[in-house]
Amino acid sequence: MPKVVDHEERRSRLGAAACAVLSRTGVAGTTVRAVAGEAGMPLATAQHYLPTRELMVRAAMAYLVDRVVRRARALPTGPSALETLRLAVVQLVPLDEERIFESRVWLMLTAEALIDEQIAAIMRENAVELRANLARLIDLARADGSIAADVDVPQAAGELATVLDGVTLRLLYAALSPAEARAEIDTHLTRLAARP
Protein backbone atom coordinates (compact mmCIF):
# COMPACT_ATOMS: atom_id res chain seq x y z
CA MET A 1 0.00 0.00 0.00
CA PRO A 2 1.47 3.40 -0.93
CA LYS A 3 2.46 5.73 1.88
CA VAL A 4 -0.01 8.58 2.49
CA VAL A 5 1.82 11.91 2.56
CA ASP A 6 0.36 14.87 4.40
CA HIS A 7 1.55 17.70 2.14
CA GLU A 8 0.17 20.46 4.37
CA GLU A 9 1.96 19.02 7.40
CA ARG A 10 5.22 18.94 5.43
CA ARG A 11 4.79 22.52 4.26
CA SER A 12 4.07 23.62 7.82
CA ARG A 13 7.15 21.76 9.10
CA LEU A 14 9.30 23.38 6.44
CA GLY A 15 7.81 26.80 7.23
CA ALA A 16 8.62 26.31 10.93
CA ALA A 17 12.13 25.16 10.02
CA ALA A 18 12.65 28.15 7.71
CA CYS A 19 11.63 30.47 10.57
CA ALA A 20 14.04 28.77 12.97
CA VAL A 21 16.93 29.06 10.49
CA LEU A 22 16.03 32.68 9.67
CA SER A 23 15.99 33.57 13.38
CA ARG A 24 19.53 32.20 13.82
CA THR A 25 21.26 33.07 10.55
CA GLY A 26 19.20 35.68 8.74
CA VAL A 27 18.20 35.38 5.11
CA ALA A 28 21.76 34.83 3.86
CA GLY A 29 22.08 31.59 5.84
CA THR A 30 18.63 30.32 4.95
CA THR A 31 19.34 27.65 2.36
CA VAL A 32 17.23 24.67 1.36
CA ARG A 33 19.90 22.43 2.88
CA ALA A 34 19.75 24.27 6.23
CA VAL A 35 15.94 24.23 6.25
CA ALA A 36 15.86 20.52 5.37
CA GLY A 37 18.27 19.77 8.21
CA GLU A 38 16.22 21.82 10.67
CA ALA A 39 13.04 20.02 9.57
CA GLY A 40 14.70 16.60 9.75
CA MET A 41 13.85 15.92 6.11
CA PRO A 42 15.92 14.66 3.21
CA LEU A 43 17.26 17.49 1.05
CA ALA A 44 15.40 16.17 -2.01
CA THR A 45 12.08 16.33 -0.12
CA ALA A 46 12.69 19.92 0.97
CA GLN A 47 13.72 20.87 -2.58
CA HIS A 48 10.47 19.38 -3.89
CA TYR A 49 8.40 21.70 -1.69
CA LEU A 50 10.72 24.73 -1.58
CA PRO A 51 12.75 24.80 -4.82
CA THR A 52 13.38 28.57 -4.64
CA ARG A 53 14.32 31.11 -1.98
CA GLU A 54 11.05 32.96 -2.67
CA LEU A 55 9.08 29.84 -1.77
CA MET A 56 11.16 29.41 1.40
CA VAL A 57 10.33 32.98 2.42
CA ARG A 58 6.65 32.44 1.58
CA ALA A 59 6.61 29.25 3.65
CA ALA A 60 8.16 31.06 6.62
CA MET A 61 5.70 33.93 6.38
CA ALA A 62 2.74 31.58 5.95
CA TYR A 63 3.86 29.74 9.09
CA LEU A 64 4.11 32.99 11.07
CA VAL A 65 0.72 34.22 9.82
CA ASP A 66 -0.85 30.87 10.71
CA ARG A 67 0.48 31.15 14.28
CA VAL A 68 -0.94 34.66 14.67
CA VAL A 69 -4.30 33.69 13.17
CA ARG A 70 -4.59 30.66 15.49
CA ARG A 71 -3.92 32.89 18.52
CA ALA A 72 -6.41 35.48 17.29
CA ARG A 73 -9.14 32.86 16.86
CA ALA A 74 -8.59 31.68 20.43
CA LEU A 75 -9.00 35.18 21.87
CA PRO A 76 -12.10 35.92 23.93
CA THR A 77 -14.26 38.76 22.69
CA GLY A 78 -14.18 41.87 24.82
CA PRO A 79 -17.22 43.68 26.24
CA SER A 80 -17.03 45.98 23.20
CA ALA A 81 -15.56 45.72 19.71
CA LEU A 82 -12.92 48.27 20.78
CA GLU A 83 -11.83 45.96 23.60
CA THR A 84 -11.72 43.04 21.16
CA LEU A 85 -9.53 45.19 18.88
CA ARG A 86 -7.25 45.94 21.85
CA LEU A 87 -6.93 42.22 22.66
CA ALA A 88 -6.16 41.44 19.02
CA VAL A 89 -3.49 44.09 18.45
CA VAL A 90 -1.64 43.22 21.65
CA GLN A 91 -1.20 39.74 20.13
CA LEU A 92 0.82 41.29 17.30
CA VAL A 93 3.62 42.80 19.39
CA PRO A 94 6.53 40.90 21.01
CA LEU A 95 5.43 40.65 24.64
CA ASP A 96 6.45 37.02 25.19
CA GLU A 97 9.03 34.55 23.85
CA GLU A 98 6.73 33.21 21.13
CA ARG A 99 5.98 36.66 19.75
CA ILE A 100 9.60 37.81 20.15
CA PHE A 101 10.62 34.90 17.92
CA GLU A 102 7.96 35.78 15.34
CA SER A 103 8.90 39.45 15.37
CA ARG A 104 12.62 38.73 14.99
CA VAL A 105 11.97 36.61 11.90
CA TRP A 106 9.57 39.23 10.51
CA LEU A 107 12.12 41.98 11.08
CA MET A 108 14.87 40.03 9.33
CA LEU A 109 12.60 39.58 6.33
CA THR A 110 11.69 43.28 6.45
CA ALA A 111 15.38 44.23 6.32
CA GLU A 112 15.94 41.86 3.39
CA ALA A 113 12.97 43.44 1.58
CA LEU A 114 15.04 46.63 1.27
CA ILE A 115 17.31 44.87 -1.24
CA ASP A 116 15.15 42.02 -2.57
CA GLU A 117 12.09 42.97 -4.61
CA GLN A 118 10.54 39.48 -4.36
CA ILE A 119 10.60 39.63 -0.56
CA ALA A 120 9.40 43.24 -0.67
CA ALA A 121 6.39 42.17 -2.76
CA ILE A 122 5.53 39.44 -0.24
CA MET A 123 5.88 41.91 2.63
CA ARG A 124 3.56 44.38 0.86
CA GLU A 125 0.94 41.64 0.39
CA ASN A 126 1.07 40.88 4.09
CA ALA A 127 0.92 44.57 5.03
CA VAL A 128 -2.24 44.98 2.92
CA GLU A 129 -3.78 41.95 4.62
CA LEU A 130 -2.92 43.27 8.09
CA ARG A 131 -4.46 46.67 7.34
CA ALA A 132 -7.59 44.97 5.98
CA ASN A 133 -7.95 42.93 9.18
CA LEU A 134 -7.40 46.00 11.36
CA ALA A 135 -9.94 47.94 9.28
CA ARG A 136 -12.49 45.15 9.75
CA LEU A 137 -12.06 45.27 13.53
CA ILE A 138 -12.17 49.08 13.59
CA ASP A 139 -15.32 49.04 11.47
CA LEU A 140 -16.96 46.62 13.92
CA ALA A 141 -16.03 48.97 16.78
CA ARG A 142 -17.48 51.92 14.90
CA ALA A 143 -20.67 49.93 14.27
CA ASP A 144 -21.15 49.09 17.99
CA GLY A 145 -20.42 52.68 19.01
CA SER A 146 -17.21 52.02 20.93
CA ILE A 147 -15.26 53.96 18.29
CA ALA A 148 -16.35 57.41 17.13
CA ALA A 149 -18.69 57.35 14.12
CA ASP A 150 -16.58 59.89 12.22
CA VAL A 151 -13.39 57.81 12.31
CA ASP A 152 -11.94 57.24 8.83
CA VAL A 153 -11.56 53.44 8.97
CA PRO A 154 -8.80 52.94 6.33
CA GLN A 155 -6.79 55.83 7.76
CA ALA A 156 -7.21 54.55 11.33
CA ALA A 157 -6.11 51.05 10.26
CA GLY A 158 -2.99 52.45 8.58
CA GLU A 159 -2.12 54.56 11.60
CA LEU A 160 -2.60 51.61 13.95
CA ALA A 161 -0.36 49.42 11.76
CA THR A 162 2.31 52.13 11.97
CA VAL A 163 2.00 52.31 15.76
CA LEU A 164 2.36 48.52 15.98
CA ASP A 165 5.47 48.57 13.77
CA GLY A 166 7.10 51.21 15.98
CA VAL A 167 6.16 49.48 19.23
CA THR A 168 7.47 46.15 17.88
CA LEU A 169 10.85 47.60 16.90
CA ARG A 170 11.32 49.40 20.20
CA LEU A 171 10.35 46.30 22.20
CA LEU A 172 12.85 44.17 20.29
CA TYR A 173 15.81 46.40 21.09
CA ALA A 174 14.57 47.06 24.64
CA ALA A 175 13.85 50.77 24.21
CA LEU A 176 10.34 50.08 25.51
CA SER A 177 9.11 47.85 28.32
CA PRO A 178 6.05 45.61 27.84
CA ALA A 179 4.06 47.88 30.19
CA GLU A 180 5.05 50.96 28.18
CA ALA A 181 4.15 49.18 24.94
CA ARG A 182 0.68 48.33 26.24
CA ALA A 183 0.26 51.93 27.44
CA GLU A 184 1.18 53.32 24.01
CA ILE A 185 -1.30 51.00 22.29
CA ASP A 186 -3.99 51.94 24.83
CA THR A 187 -3.32 55.65 24.30
CA HIS A 188 -3.65 55.27 20.54
CA LEU A 189 -6.88 53.26 20.79
CA THR A 190 -8.33 55.72 23.33
CA ARG A 191 -8.00 58.45 20.69
CA LEU A 192 -10.33 56.43 18.47
CA ALA A 193 -12.89 55.80 21.20
CA ALA A 194 -16.30 57.41 21.03
CA ARG A 195 -16.72 60.36 23.35
CA PRO A 196 -19.52 59.95 25.91
TrEMBL record:
GO molecular function terms attached to this record: DNA-binding transcription factor activity; transcription cis-regulatory region binding
Keywords: DNA-binding, Repressor, Transcription, Transcription regulation
Entry keyword Zinc: no
PROSITE patterns for this protein: HTH_TETR_2
Range of residues in the leader sequence: none
DNA-binding residue intervals: 31-50
InterPro entries associated with the record: BetI_C (IPR039538), Homeodomain-like_sf (IPR009057), HTH-type_TetR-like_transc_reg (IPR050109), HTH_TetR (IPR001647), Tet_transcr_reg_TetR-rel_C_sf (IPR036271)
Domain HTH tetR-type, residue spans: 8-68
Pfam families in alphabetical order: TetR_C_6
Entry keyword annotation includes Repressor: yes
PANTHER family registered for this protein in UniProt: HTH-TYPE TRANSCRIPTIONAL REGULATOR BETI (PTHR30055:SF234), HTH-TYPE TRANSCRIPTIONAL REGULATOR RUTR (PTHR30055)
UniProt-recorded name of the protein: Transcriptional regulator, TetR family
Organism lineage: Bacteria, Bacillati, Actinomycetota, Actinomycetes, Micromonosporales
